[in-house]
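Before going further, learn to read the protein records used in this course. The integers have meaning only within a learned vocabulary of local backbone shapes. The record below shows the convention in full.
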Amino acid sequence: MDDGTDDLRAALEAPAPPPSVALLGAVGTPARVRTRSRFGAFAAVALLGLAWPAYTLAHAALRPDLKLLPPMWVAVGAALWGLSFGLALWTALVPRRGDVLPASAVAGRVAGAAMGLLLVFAAFWTTSVPGVSARPEDLGISTLQSSWGCAKVVLEAAAPVLLIGFFALRRLLPVGARAAGIAVGAAGGAIGGLALHFICPMATAGHVLIGHVGAMIAASVAGALIFGALLDR
């Protein structure tokens, strides 16, 4: 009885058919794939994110007490805000050498440390010039009321950074999207805080804590929620 063994053996021993012309063409002329730059996303987000604060600084009046404030305080504050922006965004978008994806967990920790340092700076080293620096009570408003205007500035600065950062990371985060969102949001908030460092006339610790650093923290929370909802799989 023929059980088909001979036919199977013959089929296995038969030479393979030649490849089709279409297959040979696809294999012979592969399309070049553009590799992703380690720094491209960071450069794009940083440059576009800086546009709004730069415009604000160019068109808004500088705080009236700026020239009378201690130069060291002005320099340290600007450095803290600027480095918070750069380091949080860098760790969120740029993979470490040898890695393919950014280290989201590291980015989240860097952003948290930056916000902690700014909280300490605002709480313990806010300075003012008597008779020149403004205080909420001088304007007949509460600290919370005075903080809202600055918080809007910070959140407006953070919004484009979050948007552009989201598109830069949307295909790169199989995990860790919330931590990346914290870092990108904190970076956006920091660049808004840097602008306020030079234009906000309010010089009380409560105002800076709530309106500047508090708004940066709010931006980081927004980043965690948005990235977590849209990118976590």
Q: What stands out?
A: The two ends are 57 Å apart (CA to CA).
